[in-house]
Amino acid sequence: MVDPLVWLILLPLAWAMLVFVLGPGRGAWTAIAGLATQLWLAFMLAIKVGAGGTAVMHQVGGWGAPLGIDLAVDGLSAAMLLLTQCVALPLAIYARSYFKTGDPAGVWFWPLMGFLVAGLNALFVSADLFNIYVTLELVGLAAVALVAAGGGAQQVAAALRYLFATLVGSGAYLLGVALLYGAYGTVSIATLMPLVTADAPRLVWIASGLMVAGLMLKTALFPFHFWLPPAHGGAPAPVSALLSALVVKASFYLILRLWLGPLQALLPAFAWGMALLGAAAIFWGSWQAIRAVRLKHLIAYSTVAQLGYLFLIFPLLTNPTALKAGVMQIFAHGLAKAGMFAAAGVMIKATGQDTVAGLAGAVERLPVTLFAFGLAGMTLMGLPPSSGFLAKWQIIEAALAQGYWIIAVVALAGGLLAAVYVFRVLRQAFMLAPEGRAVAAVPRALEWSAFALAAASVLLGLRGVELMRLLGAST
Predict the structure, then answer these.
(1) Which is deepest, 137, 174, 227, 268, by most CB within 10 Å?
(2) What is the spatial distance between Cα 390 and Cα 402, in angstroms, rounded to a whole number?
């Protein structure tokens, strides 16, 4: 019988190595077929977890912890696996048309994408803190290589900055894991849960702080966001979409996993500090997006802002609605931002301009792309019936239920600021193009892949109940 839990890790590794052997620039259809199969496996696994109501476990090689490696999938990790495959498949279809023959940025895109997805899938199912570190490194190195793949001076500089951030973040996390192992003699999440208590030694508190700080750096939470705009804004559109939609969510997932798991007795002490940084991220990222000259930098700073919403939930996690709000925000932002970066890539290719001012006249030749950008913006603003509306509504509901009205105000203000930078782009696209400037035709696959991702971010708001039900299956 096919075990979807194992094959979600093995399959992307297999096709990544296969397309590497096929040679530079080849393997698009192999990758698309592999990702389609992975999407089916992720749905199978989600159905299995949801039907059983408990986590699905797998002992690698028949050896469980502490001698072997355990893999575990509960509702939260099953949801993240679903999001990963749902975003990666349309982006693979998009990338096949985006990268032309001989494009240096696309030479090793397919094997690197396979390794990235394999690392993400393994991260979401790892059941011990050290294996999580290993998968973090795989994801980080693949992401850095994707940013640097174009070979341009700005891309290499952005990749080096990203590499520095990811190595420092991973190093802080690993040091925290080492301290926890020194205190308790185990790195198993399940074993640590009853051992770590509120009266833990000071060394354990230091370990918790190091792990969370390292993961916040990798998530690009303000003020640790310095690496994100150059990396996401300078990479090719398919790479930017993958990084913004999935990679930064992986490190946030780990913070949430630690909060709900082995460090649940310690991390609530940091709740309001993280929420304060989240609020600062919303305002700072939105202001920078409003002021941005280049289109992809606008979207990258929007990512900084939207990530802030995820950290608003930590003071609210005593209310079950807050966790649902956080996961819905992950899905809303992941789908919308992938669609928005994909749409931006289409507009830049068609107009030959990478600035917001250069979009004038784009709506005449790219109505589907502009509609996709508008749908994604609708989700980021939190307008009904989008998933972004559902996420922000749940944050506000949980905040008001606990008397934290300031969090509700921040969430509402963030939506208004998002409207400013989204409508700034749409307004420019509807303006008349300067005389003599042409808008070139682009492959339909580019436009419709962007539209599919953006539309999914809106339609999820109508089917959010199934996702919320899946979260009920816990370890």
Answers:
(1) 227
(2) 19
List, in order, residues 6 or more apart from 436 with CB less than 8 Å away: none
Phi-psi region of 404 (alpha: psi -120 to 50; beta: other; left: phi over 0): beta
Torsions phi, psi for 261 (to 5 deg): -115, -115
Dist. CA 298–CA 425, nearest whole Å: 9
Contact 34, 11 (CB under 8 A): yes
Peptide linkage before 223 cis (omega within 30 of 0): yes
DSSP 74-112: -HHHHHHHHHHHHHHHHHHHHHHHHSPTT-GGGTTHHHH
In 3D space, the residue among 345, 248, 246 whose CA is nearest the CA of residue 304 turns out to be 248
Contact present, 400 and 475 (Cβ < 8 Å):
no
What does the alpha-carbon distance between residue 162 and residue 362 come to, in Å, rounded to a whole number?
A: 32
* Nearest one of 285, 254, 253, 256 to 268, comparing CA atoms: 256
Q: Considering only CA atoms, which of 72, 80, 74 is closest in space to residue 49?
A: 74
Helix 202-219 to helix 153-184 angle (10° resolution) is 160
Map out the domains of the chain as residue ranges. 270-475
Q: How many CB atoms lie within 10 A of CB 255?
A: 24
CA distance 75 to 82: 11
- Contact by Cβ (8 Å): 156, 147: no
| pLDDT tens sequence for the chain (475 residues) | 567 888 999 999 999 999 998 888 788 899 999 999 999 999 999 888 887 767 777 777 666 666 667 888 888 999 999 999 999 999 999 999 998 877 777 788 999 999 999 999 999 998 889 999 999 999 999 999 999 887 777 888 888 999 999 999 999 999 999 999 998 888 888 888 888 888 888 999 999 999 999 999 999 999 998 899 988 888 899 999 999 999 999 999 999 999 988 888 888 888 899 999 999 999 999 999 999 999 999 999 999 999 999 999 999 988 888 999 999 999 999 999 999 999 999 999 888 888 888 888 778 888 899 999 999 999 999 999 999 999 999 999 999 999 999 999 999 999 999 999 999 999 988 887 676 666 677 888 899 999 999 999 999 988 888 888 888 765 4
Q: Rounded to an integer, what distance in angstroms lies between the CA atom of residue 277 and that of residue 303?
A: 14
Pair type for strands 56-59 and 70-73: antiparallel
What distance in Å separates the CA atoms of residue 72 and residue 77, rounded to the nearest whole number? 8
d(CA 132, CA 390): 30
Buried b (16+ CB within 10 A) or exposed e, 284-317: bbbebbbebebbbbbbbbbbbbbbbbbbbbbbbb
